[in-house]
Every structure is written in structure tokens, then in C-alpha cells.
Design a protein that fits this description.
single chain; about 375 residues; alpha+beta; T-fold; nine-stranded antiparallel sheet; 10 helices; about 30% helix; binds adenosine monophosphate; binds magnesium ion
């Protein structure tokens, strides 16, 4: 079964920020207890939690896109307490905006209206969503179909199989495959609309929206005058500006074979500046059907779960790129690494095989970000 709570726990631990300050509650250290003229009470109603962990570091925690945890770290530098807290509010507003337009789970989001629309009807969509759909279509081409958000019917089929503990039939898989593909969707930017060619086409942006949201949040923090910061949504991370460890940010890579009760043992630690890091894997979200584990990542070309790569980590200049390629490499396997090698500023590492018989493959530039080596000794 999909163990959602275990999912979340592991997700939080997955890219736990190794450096980032102790989780000590010291609210409003800079401004004193009443410096905000009563806005603290207002903040008590906000859907996120603000914590000054030191006079120079504001953290924000909450959930977005349903149950997905997010974490923001803001280093205001010369900016004031109020500017920092406004930057946090702006950042949350960005997440909220993206969720309202792009969630496949909120029934009245733009994306849900498209998913529910009949063939032939022009659905007016938010411009940001249309642009992201176009970008997603380009990524499907560049990943040879390994990344394809139009495969929502397949994702749903396998999720249902996990809930009922029954494998889908070949006919069901063929049926869902026939409902997959950008050829079933026409996007028209000038009119701001999209039209489906078949009633049953549905889109799920779960493998790109988190990274996209992280990029937009980083932009919001930067333009609000923060000196440095980190944004993480569901394990996808991006940092900017000088980090807390000798100017760098330390990010942990979870060992995909660590047992749930090991507290999220790390297989390695990355030291990065001005970079994004995304991880995909079959270890934190999966279904068990007939006693066997199946990844939540589906190969849209075969219609079956992509299980050969337990963990992929991608480092890129922006989080959307890292997010998409982490999922795509989970499907493509080792051959996909040659595509990464051809891209400037993008590096990847994959752990392939099964527990006890796994090994690590990485692009030549990945090691420069690693402190030490990838250690799977727990297997
Ligand atoms: P991630 O965990 O970031 O790799 O994203 C995985 C999520 O994206 C899944 O839960 C599905 O909603 C969706 N997904 C699964 N397989 C694919 C795929 N091959 N291409 C695009 N999205 C996918
Ligand atoms: Mg991802």
C-alpha cells in the first residue's frame, strides 16, 4: 500500500538541510516581542509557520500542493525583520498561486478544469500554467518521452493498483496509454486557451511543478531584498547567495536502502552555492502489489513502473530542470546520463540495482559537489 505518512517523513528527511541552524524557537529576536504592532496575532492565522532561529535567519515551514511539506530559509543580510517577514509572505503567496492554478487535486484549479473538460471545448487557462504546459511538452520531446505529464491516466491506474493490491491488466495499461500524449492537447498562447482532442486526456504536473515553484520562490526572496536563502518543496531544493557553511549550503542525499527507522541515513552530502538539487526515487513513494514494490514513477512509453533506478539526484542551475531530469533519468536509466553530459551546468548521480547489489553512476562533474563519496555501506 502507499504509505503516505512514511512518504512524508522520508521526504522531509530526504533532503534535510544539514546546515541551517538549530531548530530553536526564538521568535522576533531582532525586533523584540511587540515590535510588530500586533501583526503576530495576524500571522498566527497564516497557513505557514515563521521561526527566527537566530537574529540572522528566518525559517518558514508549511504544506503546499496538498500534503507536500515546504521549507524556506531566509538570510535577510542588511534587510529588516519586517522586510524578511514580508519576503516570507511573498514566498508563500507564490506557492499558493501556483497551487491554485496547477494542482490536479484542487477540484477548481485551472488544471482540474482542463482535466475535466470535454474534447473540443476551449478552456481558458492562467498564462503561467499555459507557459509551464508548453515547457513540459518541450521536456517530453527532449527526454524521448521519459517525462510526460500527460500520462496521468497511467499514474492513476497504478495508484489504484496499489490501493486494491491488484496488478492492472494489459488491456487496462493499453487503454491508459491510448489516453496519453501531447498529441491529444492543443495549447494556444495567443488566446490563452487549451483544447483536448479526447475527453479522457488528463495532465499531472507532479514531476515539474515542485521544481518550478521552488524557482519562483527563490525569485521572490531575491527581489524582496534577501541576501541569501533556500527553498525546498517536497525534497526539491534551490539555494542562492552565501550559505552558512563557509559560504556553501550542505544538502544531504538520503540512502535509498536505509530502513525507515534509521532516521533517514544519508548516502552522501552535497556542498552547493547558487544551485538546485532534485531527487527522485522509488524508495519514498511506492505501491506494494502482490508483495512487490512498484515505483510511483511510470515509464510513459511502456505504461509500467520504472523500477531499475532506486535513486537519482540531479544538480542544475534551476530547480525545474533538476526536477524534470530526476524523474526522466529514473525512467531512462544509465543511458540517460549521456543526455545530461551534453548539457551545460547539469550533473547527475544515480544509484542503480537492488539492495545488496547496487552501484553508483555519475556524470564527471558531479563529484565536485560531493563531500566525500556516496556511501551505500548500509546495504
Ligand atoms: P518525482 O517524485 O518528482 O519524480 O515526481 C513523480 C510524480 O510525477 C508522480 O507522483 C506522478 O504524479 C508524476 N509522474 C510519474 N511518472 C512520471 C513521468 N514519467 N513523467 C512525468 N510525471 C510523472
Ligand atoms: Mg521531482
Amino acid at each position: 500500500m502507499n504509505d503516505k505518512r512514511l512518504d512524508l517523513l522520508r521526504l522531509i528527511l530526504a533532503l534535510a538541510v544539514v546546515a541551517g541552524g538549530a531548530m530553536v524557537l526564538m521568535h522576533r529576536m531582532r525586533g523584540g516581542p511587540d515590535a510588530d504592532g500586533g501583526q503576530a496575532a495576524e500571522r498566527g492565522r497564516t497557513p505557514y509557520q515563521l521561526t527566527w532561529v537566530s537574529p540572522d535567519e528566518l525559517q518558514v515551514h508549511g504544506r503546499t500542493m496538498g500534503p507536500i511539506p515546504f521549507k524556506l530559509i531566509l538570510f535577510p543580510g542588511e534587510a529588516t525583520v519586517d522586510q524578511a517577514e514580508r519576503a516570507a509572505a511573498d514566498s508563500y503567496a507564490v506557492l499558493d498561486r501556483i497551487n491554485r492554478h496547477m494542482s490536479a487535486y484542487l477540484p477548481d484549479s485551472d488544471l482540474s478544469r482542463l482535466n475535466e473538460a470535454p474534447a473540443g471545448r476551449a478552456v481558458t487557462l492562467d498564462g503561467e500554467l499555459l507557459a509551464l504546459l508548453e515547457a513540459a511538452g518541450d521536456y517530453t520531446a527532449r527526454t524521448d518521452g521519459a517525462f510526460d505529464p500527460t500520462a496521468r491516466r497511467l499514474f492513476q491506474l497504478w495508484a489504484a493498483a496499489g490501493r486494491t493490491d491488484r496488478l492492472p491488466t494489459d488491456e487496462q495499461i493499453a487503454g491508459a496509454l491510448a489516453m496519453t500524449g501531447w498529441r491529444h492537447l492543443a495549447l494556444d498562447r495567443p488566446s490563452g486557451t487549451a483544447v483536448k482532442a479526447i475527453d479522457t486526456l488528463q495532465v499531472d504536473l507532479g514531476a515539474i511543478a515542485k521544481g518550478y515553484a521552488v524557482d519562483q520562490v527563490i525569485e521572490a526572496m531575491r527581489s524582496a531584498g534577501m541576501e541569501a536563502g533556500l527553498a525546498e518543496v517536497g525534497g526539491e531544493v534551490r539555494v542562492f547567495g552565501p550559505g552558512p557553511r563557509d559560504g556553501a549550503w550542505l544538502l544531504g542525499i538520503t540512502d535509498p536502502f536505509a530502513s525507515a527507522d534509521s532516521g533517514g541515513r544519508l548516502a552522501g552530502t552535497l556542498a552547493v552555492t547558487d544551485r538546485a538539487v532534485a531527487t527522485s526515487g522509488n524508495y519514498y513513494r511506492f505501491s506494494v502489489i502482490g508483495g512487490r514494490r512498484y515505483s510511483h514513477i511510470i515509464d510513459p512509453r511502456t505504461g509500467r513502473p520504472a523500477d531499475a533506478v532506486p535513486s537519482v539526484t540531479v544538480i542544475a542551475g534551476d530547480c525545474m530542470t533538476a526536477d524534470v531530469w530526476a524523474t526522466a533519468l529514473s525512467v531512462l536509466g544509465p543511458e540517460g546520463l549521456t543526455k545530461i553530459e551534453a548539457m551545460d551546468g547539469v550533473e547527475a548521480m544515480m544509484i542503480i540495482g537492488r539492495q545488496g547489489n547496487a552501484h553508483v553512476l555519475q556524470t564527471p562533474g558531479f563529484a565536485a559537489y560531493l563531500r566525500g563519496e556516496i556511501d551505500l555501506s548500509a546495504q
